Here is the input.
Amino acid sequence: MAQVELKRVNKFFGETEVIRNVDLEISKGEFVVFVGPSGCGKSTLLRLIAGLETLTGGDIAIADKTVTDLPPSKRGIAMVFQSYALYPHMTVFHNMAFSLDLQGLPRKEIKERVEKAAQILQMESLLDRKPAALSGGQRQRVAIGRAIVRNPDVFLFDEPLSNLDAALRHDTRVEIARLHSQLDATTIYVTHDQVEAMTLADKIVVLKDGEVMQTGKPMDLFNRPENEFVAGFLGSPTMNFFDGVLGPVVNDVNLAEFHGQGMELRDVPLVSTEKASGTTVRLGIRPQHLVLDPKGALKGKVTLVEQLGTETIIELMSPQKVLFRYASSEQTDLIAGQHASFSFDVGKAHIF
Here is the structure.
């Protein structure tokens, strides 16, 4: 049985529909990431699960119990927000203990819970400090600790790393992954950062305009996107797209020919089986899958070279005025103004 279940969930703000018929099952102990561009509805969906927003339609169940009409405090959830929302006049200990005090738990149990959470987060030495004496990363750990002490059925994270610098984001992301492994807790995490989604999730839910575009394991979505939006959103640099025309389709193996941008390709995986020969389509190929090849059919003029240390990204303009990118873990001698040709394994390409 699912730990969290959403059935035909809808949400309107006035006449604007922001969540549209979302069906989703999240298993016990699963780490699920809602990802998508700003305004796609991912935070609203999280707030609906938390009970901070009211459903327009549908039902939500948590731990086999319908919670659609229950307040947040009765849902068995604990939420970590983008802002730390710590009480500045309280110590770390009292910030973490505050919700337990409100529940009227015995002092001994409160102390045990807070100390256990502090040990898990490696912040035992910070319990007597106030938030002003903490770094951004330490404050976020306090906010996470405040959630841990409640022993919730489900952890909800709403873009918890957005206020941190790049190095601290990485370190805290690792801590959250380690924490999830330790607690084996059901976790729903919202982010617009596809790197966070790919590295943290057991399952990714990609949203666009309030609708679920695709759900699945990170590498399944990366390697087998069901539509052009998912293909373009996941992956850095983003997937290259080239307009063309669909050639003959081999329906029994779901392969087709692609003609366009100076390329004549056979046996390219076809994402949609509803396309017929002669249809205008787009070819997608990831920058990492391009190979420098003097005889390659894909040609371009270098417009920008980015040396990132562990990776080199080359931006090029094709003769048909299409911008595309090549990415390699090896350094290259290409410079702006040069021409280059590329080939690629058609089995790693996609026709949308």
Observations:
- The first helix runs from residue 42 to 50.
- DSSP finds eight helices and 20 strands in the chain.
- The chain has a mean pLDDT of 91.
- The CA atoms of residues 51 and 325 lie 43 Å apart.
